[in-house]
Design brief:
about 130 residues; 60s Ribosomal Protein L30, Chain: A; six-stranded mixed sheet; about 25% strand
Length: about 130
């Protein structure tokens, strides 16, 4: 089985030696998305909730480039720099995942790239 590197201009370019996503067969593994504007690279949002919205839009764009959608996500991992923001991020997350809820882990981390508050990665199945 070969791996396919997924790239799209509709999500921020990788800021290191990694791919936006990798597709292997019918599985898509995304790299963690942070709240960067796809064209400017600027951080979008000041609150964790605002940043989560941009993160999920970026994640959606990467999945679309791989032939998948948020509805096909089976697992997400959310990284927060402040777990007290869980409820606010969760409310935004619920807008993007209203049904067919994926499995999920949420962890607090000491820091994230560029000083952002939220990063989310996903695994999806292309049907």
């Amino acid at each position: 089985m070969t791996k396919q590197v997924i790239t799209t201009a509709d999500a921020p370019a990788a800021i290191g030696p990694y791919s936006q996503a990798i597709r292997v067969g019918n599985l898509v593994f995304t790299s963690g998305q942070i709240p960067l504007h796809p064209q400017t690279g600027d951080i979008v949002g000041e609150t964790a909730a605002e940043q989560a919205r941009q993160v999920l839009q970026n994640l959606q764009a990467v999945l679309q480039a791989a032939g998948a959608s948020l509805q096909q996500v089976v697992k997400t991992t959310i990284f927060l720099t402040d777990l007290s923001q869980f409820a606010a991020v969760n409310a935004v997350y619920a807008e993007f995942f209203p049904e067919n809820l994926p499995a999920r882990s949420t962890v607090q981390v000491a820091a994230l790239p560029r000083g952002v508050q939220v990063e989310i990665e996903a695994i999806a199945i292309v049907e």
